[in-house]
Amino acid sequence: MKQFGSIFLAAVLGSICTIAAYRWLGKDQATATQYLNSAPITKVAYSVNEKGEAIPLDFTATAEMATKAVVHIRSTQKESTRESQQYVDPFREFFGGPQGRGNQPSQSTGSGVIINAEGYIVTNNHVVKDADIVEVTLNDNRSFKAEVIGTDPDTDLAVIKVKETNLPFLAFVDSDQAKVGQWVLAVGNPFNLNSTVTAGIISAKGRNIGIVNREGITEQGNTAIESFIQTDAAINPGNSGGALVDLNGGLLGINTAIASPTGSYSGYGFAVPSDIVSKIVEDLIKFGVVQRGWLGVQVQSVNNDLAKQFDLEVIEGAYVSGFAEKSAAKDAGVKEGDVVVKLDNTPIKTSTALIEFIGRKRPGDKVEVTVNRGGKEASYTVTLKGRDGKTSVVKAEERDGFASLGIELEEVDAKELKQLELMNGVRVKALGNGKLARYTEMREGFIITRVNDTEVKSVKEFNELLKKKKAGDLVILSGTYEDFPREFNYAFRM
Questions:
Q1: Does residue 409 sit in the same domain as residue 476?
Q2: Is residue 389 part of a domain?
Q3: 103, 128, 162 — which closes off a domain?
Q4: Residues 74, 154 share a domain
Q5: Burial class of residue 440, CB neighbours in 10 A (0-12, 13-18, 19+)
Q6: So which residues are the catalytic ones?
């Protein structure tokens, strides 16, 4: 009995010591997590309402609004090509490229954002590029075939349209007003997981990562416009073309790329700012082609090293290192070695900022350019020009014939035609990533003499002939090469 009493007393004392030690040593751990109905509750993020009261941060209303306006896009190429085997799409490592082998149809998927009730949808160019069939699935599972209204490789944006009205949509908000540290949601269809919402913050603005329109690099440089919003909201393959929204559900940008060593989310995503998107969309819908104004300058961002190298008086801005052949800025008085510090009333701290600002302008627009030259500021009014050196609006019909073919043509003078024993023809000056490169063996330098059975005497005539063709029509281009004087025929469908 005494032995039992001793054991009982020892047990009681041991329990008391255990409880005391737990309360003393585990105080911090015990208060770190609270429990309600046996479920752990951790600390949550808070926001401040209009009354200045702290409230739990809630994404539910925004998510519900945004998911209704974000669609799933499936693009199909009816046959794969030799070109796709030789050219590696830079976006494939970011969002996956078309899947297919041999002559089998290939498909790629992505996302899009409905931007008005009439069925217009904005997405990425690389989501619908070269597609023969574009299919859109809405959040409510309705599916529609979509028409590609226009594309812009220089911003990797595209506009498509479905024949449906009264659709939910997202409205653009001013991306210039977005702040680093601001909460945002990314909405899309990663890995074909429809209507996925992720949250994060804007971690940087004005990012240039050199991913857009790599194939558009020429002797004059890359014509791409990159000034991405960087976010840590999770973005993965399939998010491409989806929405980046603020907590009010306003469209801040179109998710376009990720920085990742694996091709999947590793911390940073990049979206085209809404201020660029809205301008591109408006141009494509209104004109059928982007109206892009050019300063005609080659610029690089000023930093401490560049300032020392060229003895500059400022350490921020866009350094003018050269001019294009037809430069609006040079004609207005800007000189090589100037540092652009302001455009209109907007401070310019980097070359990316300059490119973004000008990217929102059209040929004929006037811009007040303020430069720092030897420590003194001077301002010049520049009338922006198009890439062709003109200030007039570019008409869609001037490019329709070339857009899907991926070619640049030039006239052939009469003397050269006579030497080649030809009566007429136009030369393929450049051959890019289009139907001719994908579906035929044509190479640069080919002189087109006939479209089907109609002779071609000028670039204008060639374009007019193609304008008359409908989707699916068979086109046969006949002609010859200077170094291989026999007739070749290249066939493809519009």
A1: yes
A2: no
A3: 162
A4: yes
A5: buried
A6: 126, 156, 240
Q: Are residues 404 and 477 in the same domain?
A: yes
Query: Is 35 within a domain?
Result: no
Task: Kindly report, residue by residue over 6-16, the tens digit of the pLDDT.
Answer: 554 555 555 55
Q: What is the dihedral of CA 257, 263, 267, 268, to 10 degrees?
A: -10
Question: Quick check: 133 and 79 in contact, CB under 8 A?
Answer: no
CA distances from 344 to 232, 287, 354 (A): 32, 26, 11
> What average pLDDT does range 354-379 have in this prediction?
95
Name the domain boundary from 133, 162, 191.
162
The residue type at 100: G
pLDDT in tens, 280-325: 999 999 888 899 999 999 999 999 999 999 999 999 999 999 998 8
Residues 6+ apart with CB under 8 A from 89: 97, 126
Q: What whole-number percentage of the chain has pLDDT above 90?
A: 53
Separation CA 474–CA 437 (nearest Å): 16
Distances (CA, A) of 404 to 111, 401, 436, 466: 22, 7, 9, 11
Confidence grade of residue 402 (pLDDT, cut at 50, 70, 90)? low
| CATH code of the domain in which 272 resides | 2.40.10.10
Residue scoring higher pLDDT (365 or 258): 365
Domain annotation covers residue 33: no
Q: Are residues 118 and 152 in the same domain?
A: yes
Give the residue numbers spanning the domain of 281: 175-286
**CA pair distance 126, 110, nearest whole angstrom:** 9
User: Is 347 within the bounds of a domain?
Assistant: yes
Give the total number of structural domains in the chain. Answer: 4
Lowest mean pLDDT among 76-90, 142-156, 285-299, 318-332: 76-90
Which residues are registered as beta bridge partners of 40?
A: 35
* DSSP class of 92: H
> Between 439 and 291, where is the model more confident?
291
